[in-house]
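Apologies for my clumsy wording, but are you able to produce some protein sequence, whichever is easiest, and the tokens describing how it folds?
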Amino acid sequence: MKTKRAQHKNGLPSAKHVELGRVLAEGGEGKIHELPARPGFVAKVYHQTPSAEKAAKLTALVEARTPALLKVAAWPIELLRATPGGAPIGVVLPRIDEPKDIHLLYGPRSRLSAFPLAGWPFLIRAAANLARAFAVVHAHGHVLGDVNDRVALVTDRALVSLIDCDGFQLAHKGRSYACDVGVPTHQPPELQGVKSFRGLSRSANHDAFGLAVLIFQLLFLARHPFSGSYGDDGDMPLERAIREFRFVYGAKAAERGLQPPPMALDLSCVTRDVARLFEQAFGPSGVQARPSAKQWVVALDELGRLVQRCRTNPSHAYLKGRSCPFCAIDRQTDMALFHLPLSSGSARQRSVPVHLPSLWKEIAGVEAPGPTAALPAALLTLQRQCLLDARGRAWRVAGRAALVLVALALAWPTGGLSLALLLLLPVAQTQSCRTPGGPALAQRVRDFVRRWNEKAAGSVFQQRLKELERARAELEGLDNEHAHKLRALESERRRHQLDAFLGRVRIAAAEIPAVEPGLKAVLESYGIETADEVSEAALARVRALPELARRALLSWRAQQESRFVFDPARAVDPAARATLERQTHKRRADLVQKLVDGPAKLRHRAGQIRSARQTLGAELGPLLADVERETKRARGAA
């Protein structure tokens, strides 16, 4: 092992040897080494010796450290030097346990692998903790500057630590050290198009835009707030959409022809305060004052308190009084947004958590409302007359319109003689058959019959009962269906091995010609995260994707596929099997819940039918008397 020296001040030892351990990670600037003698810390060693300007900034960072900063960031605490008094070659940082890039949390595909137990409440907590970290940095007078999808690491407890602090804009002892880089996808509109960030002074309000983008991506499952359809303006780069405040989820987005990608959540899934903060962060007024990190903490903590777990999938959550938006997306697509938490034990040991025969006995014991009484013949006769009269009026209107069109069309060839046909309009107008009692009684009859069929008919109860019978049959056959699908997995091992192989190759981490970070963010907004999701059909949905980038992506996918080697000795891919288990368990949970709710809903429906029959029965007598009276009057007049 190589040894380096660390020199630091403030009463600490002036120099000591540090033994570097194995490399934990490597980036563009340097390598992260473990420190065997100091398990709570790591060392970042730069590939190239920092310049004098960089060395001064590193020294300021070490001097500016505080306990508060160390709680939320991998803040440098010591300088590493090759020799005593020499130039810094690296820094010592706090070690973060089980670190994972934050972008692996908000992408559905990567989250299922990196954070398999994370549900939407977990994402809300992570977003709130990210805002807390920003608030601490801003409270010290510093600015992150280069906010991006790798600005923080997240643990399995949703704890957030900011990283790459040596790139922050630092304020220390009256001097400012700039952040010289920036990723356009998370930079505010006023900084879009900047040729260089070098030496540029940035503010906490600039950070606030990038923070809002990251929070949006966490809550809205990797969707970028400015990626979507731009209406008549056609396709455009993401940077231009940001510059022109084209927030595709905003309250007035539809008026501007803006639409989010398919299968996306909308602002109704969050509280009004959170939605308002997004509007403020991404609208023109934000140039002057965007929501601060502290405001986000308050709003996100409230959102976390107000959401309730979904009974179908506890990983889902939604605001009380609303329906689960994640279940709605699950029903429309095969893409899994979250894992369905499974109980311990094998699939064979998991059983329906109710006694099905007893439950079905309870369902069958619900007293039916009985057959529907036939409505009086006089009422039904008048109702049929109403329908015939309505159809007759429609035909007469169509006939008069045709007569006018023919007369006008022939006016020029006939020298105007065809206009004489218009004299037939009064005749056509008078040829009508009015129902007894006029329009008022006809409307009363039609409305009564409609309400009787919708609310008082016993068929409504029987339809609900048949739905429960189908659910029972499907539940009883679910194990056989599961076994059949498992056998199908065995026969498709090569395809599943290929899918698993391609599913581990992320677009965000790949160097693909013609696909810059902005396009990668757009692809992620359309659910295209990994190589297996790249296809002609999938890319065709991304209207903002240039042809050159489309060809590059397809070529890249083909290159990745050519690296795949099938292993005939390998069993069914665990991920494919886990997906089948998840789908089966989810369907089982849906069916069980439907049957458990069955008795109460059946009794409620039966009660509604009986109540409707009683209410409508009270209306029937007077209505029937009016019908018979008007019918007799019409016959007498004839």
Summary: Residues 358-372+457-638 form one domain. Residues 7-14, 343-353 have pLDDT under 50 and may be disordered. The chain has 21 helices and 14 strands.
